[in-house]
Amino acid sequence: MTKNRTRAKEDTYHHGDLREALLRSAESILRREGLNALSLRAIARATGVSHAAPAHHFPDLVSLLSALAAEGFDRLADNLIEAKHRGEDPPFEIAKAYILFAQANPALFQLMSDPSRLDSNNPALFAARTRGIAILAGIRGATMEHPTLAQVGAMTANWGLVHGLAVLLSTGRLGALVRIAPKGTTEMDIIEAAINSMRRPI
């Protein structure tokens, strides 16, 4: 009876519905239990389909995680674009949006930052990642097409700054700095001061 119910549920997914359901189950497990809890069997079980069902869309776990990471990069890029048009200081707003995304989505951000779990040749992942980098590059007036070495260096510095700050915040590493900072300083105060420090001497 259980097998019949599982097969019946599996058969209710049509066209792209199963793929979407698998990705949502994977993200739910990721958020709830972390990256190490993800497996095709666990994702299939959470979706209510047979363990063989994911193979219709994802031949292995890497392909599913790459699709999920691509979604993450697209969401991040959307946030960065929105931030670009918010306030009078686009570079600051973009950097802050990147960091806040990592804080709000720590497990997904960890997956997006772990190349050992992903297929770097996945077209959707490559396109989504490039889209996000292009927005960060634009902060310094660079483009992804034929940049100079100096521009690539500036792009790398910007990315390194915001990504490093995002990791420090999302992993709770700023506590020691909060304790030595002026009374009433918050973690986000430190983040904002760090972004601003790149524009002027201390």
How would you describe this protein?
It is a single chain. By secondary structure, the protein is mostly helical. The protein has two domains: 1-58, Arc Repressor Mutant, subunit A (Orthogonal Bundle); 60-202, Orthogonal Bundle (Tetracycline Repressor, domain 2), CATH 1.10.357.10. The protein contains ten helices and no strands. Helix 2 crosses helix 4 and helix 7 (123-138) crosses helix 8. It is globular. The N and C termini lie far apart (69 Å).
Short description, anyone?
By secondary structure, this protein is mostly helical. Helix content is 68%, strand content 0%. The mean pLDDT is 88.
Protein topology:
Blueprint: H1 2-12, H2 17-33, H3 40-47, H4 61-84, H5 90-104, H6 106-112, H7 123-138, H8 149-170, H9 175-180, H10 187-197
Helix pairs in contact: 2-3, 2-4, 4-5, 4-6, 4-7, 5-6, 5-8, 7-8, 8-10
Strand content: under 5%
The CATH architecture assignment of the largest domain turns out to be: Orthogonal Bundle
Largest sheet: none
Net shape: globular
What key attributes describe this structure?
202 residues; mainly alpha; Tetracycline Repressor, domain 2; 2 domains; single chain
